[in-house]
Structure formats: structure tokens, C-alpha cells
Amino acid sequence: MATKRDYYEILGVSKSASDGEIATAYRRIAIKHHPDRTGDDPEAIEIFKEASEAYEVLRDGDKRARYDQFGHAGVGAGGPQFQNVDDIFEAFGDMFGGGGGIFGDLFGASRRGRSNKGASLRVETSLTLEEAAAGVEKELRFRRNEACDTCHGSGAKPGTQPRICPRCQGRGAVVQQAGILRVETACPQCRGERYVVDDPCPECKGRRVKSEEVRLTVAIPPGIDDGMQVRLAGEGEPSLAGGPRGDCLVAVHVRPHKMFQRDGRHLVLQMPISYTQAALGATIEAPTLNGPATLKIPPGTPAVEVFRIPGRGMPDPHGGPPGDLAVRTYVEVPKKVSGRQEEILRELAEVEAKNVSPHRKSFLDNLKELFTGAADDAE
């Protein structure tokens, strides 16, 4: 397996680079190696994909922090895996065409000319940590455009037909040239739709579509993390140019848990133990997402210690081994004690005062010398 290159090296920026510097570096590489400029050159496409993977991670504050700490393992199986350039356009939404993206209209029209696929939709769903660990099916309710029933998606009043745009001759794009720079942009008359409507449909007002509520069920895979997306292919907006529907991108939010904190595939549990358990040792049950697990506390455990229970963390959504549960124990001091407990603790204090350990005796000796020296100096 080939070694993944460092994302900062790919974009040619330092690890302290700002978000703006990262976006600028990616824009420079993407413009140079964009498929609309290089055609089907496989080397350029690989560079374009590699830079897009790097940008997808480094533009996200949480992903960037995990990458800085753990490298490629911190963002899951080496980060995003774009299979082709269409995956990149779907992941970055409007970035490559119009909508104020970092590329403006530089590639928007030519991209639309190459693909008649409808726009993607983005919806959100919220999960508990238990649902994220086990995997779950969620019903989604959202609005999307459907072809108008009255004009059957033509945008024209029944009995009339749209006509080919006279400005672009049905191409949906026009070419603007200034010196050696040749840029293809969306046709201003038909807005890239290739046809114009003289007598609009009274139902959709010439829009060709109308908004409707839909319900879909999405299968969330086990181990999904907060901020990840699930793609429902062909469940996005219809294409006004006769192409396939876009996709529905389901953004997943995992709600915080009362007991467990998540660190990638691993879970962290803060668990109090008593002074006697830490001093004498104990066998206790630690809660996990799928039932209790036995945890042995050895005698003489420090006030704060971390124990790992292998395989009791989160599943790996990329198919790797599950994570661990890190149990962070700490000695809990009770705010109130019973009379008998106080009696025992006072007896223990007396024993400790009579049988001072070498470490503690050294500290007391040093303390005595400190005050003795201060008194001598004063004289």
C-alpha cells in the first residue's frame, strides 16, 4: 500500500497556515489541474484528487486538529477517499461553480455542460451515541423540488413549448475571451438551462418544478462520527436539463453523552473510586455502551489512573477494528462521612502519623530545616 503524503506538503503550506492560506493554496492547485482544463490527463486528475482530499480535511477545524495530533489515522483510514472528480464536486457543493465559492464562475458553466445531473441536497439528522455505535435507520422529512404536474417540467403554459435559447443556441453556456484567457460561463439569457419560456406555466410560474415534502429512510452505519455524511444517491434535486437526479447528503450530528466522551474510535469514561479501593485493590464493573465490563483495580493505584478495555469503544465506520474504552479512575473524597467512618479515618490518621514513610519523613525533615534556617538567619 502506498504511503499517504502529508496534507500540508500536498498543498505547499506550513502547519501554522491560516484557513485563508489553505484555501488559496488549494485554489491554485485545483485551477491548474482541474479536469475542465486538463481533460482526461490521469496524472492531473490524481493531483486534483490528492489536493482535494487534503483540503477537505484541513478546512475543517475538528478534522485538522485530529490530523495534527494523530496524522492520517486521526481522520479515519487516511482521510476522505474520493473515487472520482464527481465525488469532489458533490462534497464541496457550490465551490466549483457560482454561489460565491472560491472558484466563482470559472468552471461553473463548463461543469454544467459536462454533467446534467441535478443539484445535491443537504439534510441533517441527530443521533445518540448509542445509535451511532450500533447503527440505526432514521426517517428524514425535508422539502425538495419535483417536476410540475401542470407543465410536466417544461415550464411552459399547457399548449405551448419552450424554445431553444437564441443567445447560446441551446448550449447553456457562452464563451468570453480577453486576450489569451478564454472562460466559459453560464448563458445570461437562459441561465444555463438551454431553453427560454415565452408563456410561463401558471402553476410553477415557469420554474418547471414545485416544492414538495418527502420522507426517506436512511441507514446509518455503525461507528459514524459527528460531522460525517451519508449519501443517498439519486434522492436530490431533479435535473432541469434531462439528466439524473442529484444526491441527498445526510449530515450526521452525534449528541454529547452524559458519561462517555468520544476520541475517534475510542471512548473515555471518568469513573470515581474510593480511597480503600485504590489502596487495597478491587474488582469493579465499568459501564460500556453494550453492558458492564470487569475492571481490576490493583493495590496502590494512584489518585488518577487510566485503564484500557480493548474493543469496547466505537466500531470503525471504515471497517477496521473497534476502538477501546479508556477508563480514567480518580479517588473521590466524600463530602460527608458517617460517625463510624470518621472514627476509622481518625484511627488511620493516627497510624499514619506514627509510621511515617521515608518519602514523607524526608519532606518533613526538609520543612523543619527550612524553618530552622529562617530562624537562624533572623538572629
Number of helices: 11
Assign an overall shape.
elongated
User: Which range best describes the helical content: under 10%, 10-25%, 25-40%, 40-55%, 55-70% or over 70%?
Assistant: 25-40%
The secondary-structure element order is HHHHHHHEHEEEEEEEEEEHEEEEHH
Rounded average pLDDT: 82
Unreliable stretches covering 5 or more consecutive residues = 93-114
The largest pleated sheet is described as: 4 strands, mixed
What's the short version?
The protein contains 11 helices and 15 strands. The protein is an alpha+beta fold and 379 residues long.
Question: Can you walk through the features of this model?
Answer:
The chain is α+β, with helices and mostly antiparallel strands. Helix content is 30%, strand content 25%. It is built from eleven helices and 15 strands. Strands 10-11-15-14 form a four-stranded mixed beta sheet. Mean pLDDT is 82; it is low at 93-114.
List the helices and strands and how they pair.
Elements: H1 7-11, H2 19-33, H3 35-38, H4 42-58, H5 61-70, H6 85-91, H7 108-114, E1 121-127, H8 129-134, E2 136-147, E3 163-164, E4 173-178, E5 181-186, E6 195-196, E7 209-220, E8 229-232, E9 248-254, E10 260-263, E11 266-273, H9 275-280, E12 282-286, E13 293-297, E14 304-309, E15 325-331, H10 339-354, H11 358-378
Parallel strand pairs: 1-9, 11-15
Antiparallel strand pairs: 2-7, 3-6, 4-5, 8-9, 10-11, 12-13, 14-15
Helix pairs in contact: 2-4
